[in-house]
Specification:
The complex is a heterodimer of chains A (464) and B (99). Chain A is of the alpha/beta class and 464 residues long. Chain A folds into three domains: 5-118 and 269-339, FAD/NAD(P)-binding domain (3-Layer(bba) Sandwich); 121-266, FAD/NAD(P)-binding domain (3-Layer(bba) Sandwich); 377-444, Arc Repressor Mutant, subunit A (Orthogonal Bundle). Chain A has 19 helices and 24 strands. In chain A, helix 15 (392-400) packs across helix 17. The longest helix of chain A has 19 residues, at 341-359. With 99 residues, chain B is mainly beta. Chain B has one domain: Roll (Ubiquitin-like (UB roll)), CATH 3.10.20.740. Chain B contains one helix and eight strands; from the N terminus they run E-E-E-H-E-E-E-E-E. Chain B is globular, with a radius of gyration of 13 Å. The chains are: A alpha/beta (464), B mainly beta (99). The A-B interface holds A 36, 38, 43, 50, 52, 54-55, 58, 118-119, 128, 130-134, 136-137, 140-142, 144-151, 172-173, 235-236, 260-261, 271, 386-389, 418-420, 423-424, 455 and B 1-6, 8-10, 25, 27-29, 32, 35-36, 40-41, 45, 47-48, 50-63, 65, 73, 78, 80. Strand 9 (147-149) of chain A pairs antiparallel with strand 1 of chain B, so a sheet runs across the interface.
Chain lengths: 464, 99
């Protein structure tokens, strides 16, 4: 049974949330962790404690590694509530949560948000067709259900996850019919200058090279610098159409490949809905093209009693996220009077150092895999809001009529008003407006978040 | 569109998908089961009636809304399959009979 108050309440049981819980519990803090999944691990270590040997072989060492953190978390002594949906949150650290069809309000002395990342939308023409999914969805199916695509498979987009998924599919014996790389031409050579500062994290670079070589050796047709990518089909995906970038002197237009499954990816963005609901300040990170949550070296947000850590604050990867979770867990323990100034200093030193090493790869990755502007801000005929079926053209028309931000566009067009509440389209809408008005993202802002943060029935609500 | 890479490790359960009995691996999500059963779409949108399949599999996109055990508009990727569960496509907006 959940209590009505905890010293530290954590939302999210991915690397950051689990590590924070372990750390705080080890200092005697009364901790509870709420997570919407059935098992701990977040998306990165999803289902890790139940994966089969075959899944582990296919998914690789970096996935299996998550098992030790999950074990440590299970034995931490903190309370853990899986299958928990947070539908309310405010700046006074009051949390409304739905567990087993029952609603509860829980208060927290310190609140820690570790909601992780979601895939950056990749709005191309036809991305709503059955048969088109995110690469992350493909990987979730592999981790949680041992499922792989059947039929003609095309992977398209940019970013480390796309490469990793291709590599994992190869280990599983899946035939990949084409790999379509939308990374803008020249991005890799432009990021070479950042290689030097990435050297402390050379292990990441080696892994990347190993995966690239494996994909090349497998003989998968690879198309680089692809523009004008679209998904074609009537009732479902039938083909993928694109223009290749220049190869030698030739530029091929209107390439068409038949496909049953198209998996899209262009990086990940922070899931900022919970921090926004809690009134935490955010800032536009131009390098990551991501709304990041403003926080200090301990993960503390603009609200001193609310920590926001992991990919849910800024994209930093699983290892750096877990280390940031540890730092926040320590700091909260210190603030709650459980550890002294000097102990905090001694404990945090090595963690800060290790985190710095893991973060050193980021500037290179962010620059090397920067999403192409063409796929951030789509053409007029492309659907942006999948729920209300609003195109980029309709959004631009609203801006021409005088809308200056996403919330006005929402009122004019219903864009972001559907069941996902702008979770999927929000970042694209702001980018379209910023481009059209030629204003910085900070000035355009993002969609407001209002409770209920997740769907809840009146019956469930009335019992809270 | 999808297949499994091995026999289910934790056994299988029987669920009723669009009135047809299917055996699917235990402990997978309803959205994964719908893909495994080969449904062409899990819902028709309330706006244009277009068919959709699960898109993000992590609770963000709401494209996997289905009617599960009679309850409309459930995110199929957030629900785990259970024996004798009934799973139906969500056609347009939800209708609540007892309102």
């Amino acid at each position: 049974m959940i209590d009505d108050r905890y010293e530290l309440l954590i939302i999210g049981a991915g690397p950051a949330g689990m590590a924070a819980a372990c750390e705080a519990a080890s200092h005697g803090i009364r901790v509870a962790v709420l997570d919407n999944q059935a098992a701990p691990g977040g998306q990165i270590y999803r289902n890790v404690d139940r994966a089969t040997n075959r899944q582990n072989r296919v998914l690789g060492k970096d996935f299996v590694k998550g098992r030790s953190l999950v074990e440590q978390f299970k034995q931490s002594g903190g309370s853990y509530f899986p299958g928990a949906t947070v539908w309310f949150l405010d700046e006074k650290r009051r949390v409304g949560v739905l567990i087993d069809d029952k609603s509860f309000f829980v208060d927290a002395d310190k609140l820690l948000l570790a909601a992780g990342a979601q895939e950056r939308p990749m709005p191309i023409k036809g991305w709503q067709l059955p048969g088109v999914m995110t690469a992350g969805a493909g990987q979730i199916l592999l981790k949680s259900a041992g499922m792989v695509p059947n039929g003609r498979l095309v992977l398209a987009g940019s970013g480390p996850l796309l490469l990793l998924l291709a590599y994992q599919y190869l280990q599983a014996g899946v035939k990949i019919d084409a790999l379509i790389d939308t990374t803008p031409r020249g991005a890799i050579s432009r990021s070479l200058g950042k290689l030097f500062e990435a050297l402390p994290a050379a292990d990441y670079l080696l892994k990347g090279v190993k995966m690239m070589l494996a994909v090349r050796r497998a003989g998968i047709p690879i198309y680089h610098g692809v523009e004008g990518l679209s998904a074609i089909g009537e009732e479902k995906l039938e083909a993928v159409r694109f223009d290749t970038g220049k190869t030698g002197f030739k530029k091929v237009t209107d390439c068409e490949l038949r496909a049953d499954t198209l998996l899209l990816h262009q990086g990940v963005i922070s899931n900022i809905r919970l921090p926004l609901a809690a009134g935490c300040e955010i800032e536009w990170d131009a390098g990551q093209k991501n709304w990041a949550v403003t926080n200090d070296e301990w993960g503390r947000s603009s609200n001193a009693d609310i920590y926001v850590v992991g990919d849910g604050s800024r994209i930093s990867g699983a290892e750096a996220s877990a280390l940031q979770g540890r730092l926040a867990g320590m700091h909260a323990s210190h603030q709650l009077g459980k550890i002294s100034d000097s102990k905090l200093e001694v404990l945090s030193g090595p963690v800060v150092k290790s985190r710095k090493r893991h973060l050193s790869i980021r500037p290179f990755l962010d620059s090397c895999y920067t999403p192409s502007p063409r796929y951030l801000v789509p053409g007029d005929d492309t659907l942006v809001c999948r729920c209300e079926e609003i195109t980029a053209g309709e959004i631009r028309q609203a801006v021409r009529l005088g809308c200056t931000g996403p919330n006005q566009v929402k009122s004019f067009t219903r864009c972001g008003m559907g069941p996902c509440q702008g979770g999927q389209c929000g970042s694209t809408v702001s980018l379209i407006i910023a481009e059209q008005l030629d204003k910085p993202m900070a000035e355009i802002g993002c969609l407001r978040v209002r409770p209920p943060l997740s769907p809840i029935t009146l019956g469930q609500l009335s019992e809270a | 569109m999808f297949k499994t890479i091995e026999e289910p490790a934790e056994g299988a359960v029987e669920i009723l998908v669009e009135g047809v009995a299917h055996r699917v691996p235990a402990n997978i999500s309803v959205a994964a089961a719908a893909l495994l059963c080969g449904l062409g779409s899990v819902r028709e949108t309330p706006v244009s009636g277009a068919g959709r399949l699960p898109y993000c599999m992590m609770g963000v996109c709401f494209d996997c809304l289905m009617k599960i055990n009679g309850q409309p508009n459930q995110r199929a990727c957030q629900v785990t399959v259970a024996a004798d569960m009934t799973v139906e496509r969500q056609l347009g907006a939800a209708e609540y009979e007892d309102l």
